[in-house]
């Protein structure tokens, strides 16, 4: 059983630097991709597990090539869902653990940048998310992930999320 732990502001500089490095590398190989720093490390002052998440958004016709490029850079996340419009990659071989989510624009999984934006514009949702994280400090990671999924399912119902393109 993996235990989850959170910190506030401890990883900010490392997370920002890692995103800049990976963004540069990704832009060189996937010049048409829309690349975003997502997840808690992209939201200043929030609790984070100390990892970095990147969303790489591509058109459907660019997806297979993007998969090949990302597979050459990162291990596939064997625990993540893999579909014709979504792939997940994960490595601990960087200064902080790194997750890369490849999504087809406007597909079912094209949500990560929207979640980030909603949390950035609404302090109340950020506070709720931090409270959720704090309640899982030192507990089972899978239990936290289930509660996190429920939180984001609820966030999808908000006017802020529904107004996102």
TrEMBL record:
Coiled-coil ranges from the UniProt annotation: none
Protein name: GrpB family protein
Domain of life according to the entry: Bacteria
Gene3D superfamilies named in the record: Beta Polymerase, domain 2
InterPro entries: GrpB/CoaE, NT_sf
A Pfam family assignment: GrpB
